[in-house]
Amino acid sequence: MHRDGHARRRAGAGSGVNSASAPPDGSCDVRFGSSIAHCEPAFGWCVVPHSAASISTVSYVLAMARYPRVREQHVAVFGEAGSGKTVLVSSFYGPSQEKSFASDLFDLVADEIGQGTRLYKNYLGMRDHATAPAHTRFEGTTYYFSLKLKGAGKVKAKKRPFDVLRLAWHDYPGEWFEESPSSEEEAHRRIDTFRSLLRSDVALLLVDGQKLLDYKDREEQYLKSVLTNFRQGLLALKEDLLNDGGRLDEFPRIWIIALSKADLLPEWDVHAFRDLVVWKADEPIDLLRKTLREFVVAPDALSLGEDFMVLSSAKFELSSAGPKPVEIDVTKRLGVDLILPVASLLPLERRVQWQEKFMIPMKVLESLADGADTLAVAMMGGRNPLVRKFVARLPNVGPVQGRAALPLLIEAVKLAGSQLRQINEDARENKDYLTATLTQFKLDLERGEVDGLLIRSK
After folding, report:
1. Is the same domain home to 249 and 108?
2. Would residue 1 count as lying in a domain?
3. Do residues 310 and 335 lie in contact, with contact meaning Cβ atoms separated by under 8 Å?
4. What one-character DSSP code corresponds to residue 248?
5. How many C-beta atoms lie closer than 10 Å to residue 444's C-beta?
6. Which residue of 27, 182, 217, 333 is surrounded by the most CB atoms within 10 Å?
7. Is there a single domain that holds both residue 173 and residue 308?
8. Ranked by mean pLDDT, which of 22-26, 136-140, 256-260 comes out on top?
9. What share of the chain is helix, strand, coil (3-state, %, to 5)?
10. Of 44, 62, 80, at which residue does a domain stop?
11. Residue 222: is it exposed, middle or buried by C-beta count within 10 angstroms (0-12/13-18/19+)?
12. Rounded Cα distance, 436 and 105, in Å
């Protein structure tokens, strides 16, 4: 018996393990006779229900971790046709394939070779031929990117809670919020595509910088149109998404209003953009917020109109004779490098804020920044006293007593300034690539705010 009164058993011969299945994040459900145990290989233990244990309590079984261990995060990108979604994802991926953009901490790869080739071709077209990517009408695409951490040998790599951070980037067709379905098949496709992005914690709602120029001094007309079309599109999907009448636990809960094509408005920073949107479109935003809240359990855990970004995939020099670019400078990007940090860390920050302010069901919290305790341990580094204390109590946390992790999550979210920089420097020196990457993401978010590219809800 362990000192906490619980039994521990090694999974394997003689343990009664019949089968196991593991999703991409590395957690797994292991069958013990007629019962199922939930396992977290990153922590190394399985929680076995009373009926499956040979004693009248809960058993903790050593889990066999699978390699590479993957943590998956989803982001959904919405915007009208022509708002720059395809250019944005091409600009996100393309530079990572150039030697000059190589990271000393990780490699970014496209999980599907064909997708990666098309995105890099789009990028080369912009870089070398001043050719913007073709519009992808009515195509709902999910791109999978893996951020593969560099390692210093298998021994050190096994000590980190995960090896790969996967980003699922959901690109939802803008036409589907502007036009009615042309057939029953297309209507079903819209519903299925939206269902596929429900795991996203973060959604980017793009506001087209070109349209703001076109509607100069009457921007409220454009903003009302784009926000109302999006709201009406959601209402059209509502009955099918909530087909049993119940609200959703998993749903994008952090809605960031993002200015695309920001290079066309060089005098604007994120504060100028936020001020314009709030002044010109407060009522449409409020209506959209109310509609979004109707989809979710615990509607207090949802934000819209609190977070803003400015994004530019490249600097486009347009021809005076028409909209075709004569030059595209792909080195002049704004905000694109913040997408990975935003998708990875903003859900953790918002989970802590909401958990402190509201009574949010644990099921909802666990769907937001899933595995947040693992992420916090990795971000703070193993030498932190609070981390060591937390790790020593691993069998008492996780699915059974998730609220016990709150002090650790708060401490991770509070990391800032000189303390954050010191952890990052130490991690780099010790070749702790995971901690170095996550703390660099947090430093990038701080820099994004200083540079006027990002506003985060406080």
Report:
1. yes
2. no
3. yes
4. B
5. 18
6. 27
7. yes
8. 256-260
9. 45, 20, 35
10. 62
11. buried
12. 7
